[in-house]
Every structure is written in structure tokens, then in C-alpha cells.
What does this fold into?
Amino acid sequence: MKVTFGSLVITAGICGMLSFAFLATSLGTDYWYIIDMNPMNTSDYEDIVPPHSGLWSTNKGGKIQGDSVDSITADYSRYSETELYMHSAIVVVLPFSLVLLLFGGICGLVSSLARSPVLLTGTACYFFVCSLLTLCGVSLYIIYSYQALAETERLVGPEGLAYVRTSFGWSLGLAWLSYGLEVLTGILMFLAARMAKLQLSSPTMTSHKPPQWIQHNQDGN
It folds into this structure.
């Protein structure tokens, strides 16, 4: 199966749109962090929705709180200065990456229509930068959550967390999927740039080569 320029840019466009949709859904939902407060006594807890949080809100039993809480630290202590700085970085980096993805789609459309190797390569690098920002934001969130949980355990002791289980939710999974699709989009755009460059150089290479009947005449003379 021959891979064409059109198939590359169309696949890259689909991956780019999916990455934008996944990241937007991830940022707009509050299933980044899930807290199971009573996993042992399931008879008293089966009808209660476990608390879960996002970047800007926390859902506790159907009640949404505006203050972002990504671990159980809100129940026992306030955030440390380092955690506040990390959270501020997260809520800036990830939305900024989402905005860059929107402009990246426009750049990808223009460069694909122009078939410019330079523009296509620039768009590929642009998506690589977006993926780096998404990776940094997601990685910071994971580190931030573990630090918050460790700080809570230090304050309340292991007994206070005996019946508490924490896990990352599907919102974080969507952010990881968005990161992978951003990398894939950049790779596809880079391949499209290489193919466009070869297509532009092919006529130049063949134009200097004389036709076959001229070569036969020159050999006969």
C-alpha cells in the first residue's frame, strides 16, 4: 500500500482534532483524582459516589466545590507553598497547550494546502512543543498529587488513611491520550514535509536528464 501526501495530512488532521477534543474534555471534567473513603465497609458506602476532583473543582457526593482539590489534603490541612506553585503551573500549562493546539490546527491546514516543506516542518515542530507542554502539565499533576498525599499522611498518620484509597481517573487518561496524539500528529506532519520535499525535487532532477531518444542519437554519433 502506497502512502500518499494526502493520506498523511488527513491522518495528521484527524489525530490533531482528537488530541484537542481529548485535552478539552480532560480539562473540563473532574475525574482526575478519585478518593475512595470507605473501601472496606461497602454495605454503607455503595450508594455514595466517591469524591473525585479535577483541576478547578471537587465533587463530594454530588456537591461540587469550586476550590480545586486533587487529594484528601483539603480535609485535613492546607496546601503547602510548593503545592500551590505546582498547582498554579498546572492550571496554566495545560490550558495554554490547548490554545496552542487550536492554532496548530490552523497552521496545519495552511501548510498542507500550500504543500510547503518549510511550513509543514514548522507545523510538526509546533505540535512537538504542544506535546511537551502537555507532558509537563500531566507529569506535574502526578507529582503534585503524590506530594499532597504524602503530606497528608505525615500530618494524620497511617491510621488516618487506613480506609482511604486514591487513584487517578479517566480525565488524566484522556490527557495522556492527547499527548500521544500530539506526538503522532507531529511525526505525520514531518513525514508529509519530507514527501513534499521529494515531490518538489523530483521534477528538477528529471528536467536535466535528456530524453531516451536523444541519448541514443548521441551514442550513435
